[in-house]
Amino acid sequence: MTRGSVTSPPDAVAAQATQLARADALGLATGDCAAATLVLTGRVALSNGKQGGSGQLEWTQGAGSLHLLLSAPITRQQWILDVDAAGATLQGVPSGPLHGSDAAGLLRDATGWDVPVAALGCWMRAVAADPARFGVAEIAYGADLLPMRIAQQGWVIDYRDWKRDPFSGLPMPTRINAQRGDSRIRLIVDRWGLE
C-alpha cells in the first residue's frame, strides 16, 4: 500500500476510529502487548551507534508468553529469548543461559542492543502500547488512515509499507523502523502468520 501524507484534522477522527477497530481486531484494545497471539518472521538490523548486526527474526507470542529467535547467518550466532510470567531466559550467550525479570535488560547486557521487548508486540503491529506502562503515545496517520508513526516511551516507530495479512484480512506493516537515541531497529516482515 502506498503511503500518503499525514492526515489533516478533519480526517483525524476517522483515522482514530480505524485504529481502534484494528487494535480491537488484533486483540490489542487494552494495549497489553503480550496477550494477543503474534507470529512473525522477518529480517532485522540492530544498531546502538557503535556496533550493529543483522539477521533473521522469529517472534512467537500469545497468552502472556514470548519466544524470540534472533540469528545472524554470517556469524552463525543465535540468541533465543523466552519470556513468561516467571521471567525471562536468554540462551546463546557464552556464559550459559541468563535469567532475569527484565527481558530487554538481558538482551542489552548480552548484546549491547536496546530492544523494547515489552512494547514491540504492539508496535510491530502499529498499535500503541498500554499508556499506563509506556506513557501516552502520539500517532501520526497517513491519508490511508493507517499509522505512519508512533512515538512512545522515547521511541519513534515509522511504518514504511503495508500489506493485507492473508490470515486476519487486516492491513499490517511490512517495513518498520524504530529509533530511540542511538538505538535503531529496522525490521522487514516476511510473513505474518498463525501458530
- Considering the protein shown, what is the CATH homologous superfamily? Lipoprotein localisation LolA/LolB/LppX
Question: In what range is the share of β-strand residues?
Answer: 35-45%
Radius of gyration: 16 Å
Q: In terms of structural class, how would the helical and strand content be classed?
A: alpha+beta
For the record, the count of structural domains works out to 1
C-alpha geometry: globular
Q: What's the helix-strand series? A: HEEEEEEHHHEEEEE
CATH architecture: Clam
Number of helices: 4
Strands across the major sheet, in which order? 6-5-4-3-2-1-11-10-9-8-7
User: How helix-rich are the residues, as a percent range?
Assistant: 10-25%
Summarize model confidence as the mean pLDDT.
89
Distance between the termini: 26 Å
Give the beta-strand count: 11
Please describe the topology of this protein.
Layout: H1 9-25, E1 38-47, E2 52-62, E3 65-72, E4 77-84, E5 87-91, E6 98-100, H2 103-111, H3 117-123, H4 131-134, E7 138-141, E8 147-152, E9 155-164, E10 171-180, E11 183-193
Write a concise keyword list for the protein shown above.
195 residues; alpha+beta; eleven-stranded antiparallel β-sheet; 44% strand
What can you tell me about this protein's structure?
This protein is α+β, with helices and mostly antiparallel strands and 195 residues long. It has a single domain, classed as outer membrane lipoprotein receptor (LolB), chain A (Clam). It has helices at 9-25, 103-111, 117-123, 131-134, and strands at residues 38-47, 52-62, 65-72, 77-84, 87-91, 98-100, 138-141, 147-152, 155-164, 171-180, 183-193. The model is unreliable at 1-5 (pLDDT under 50).
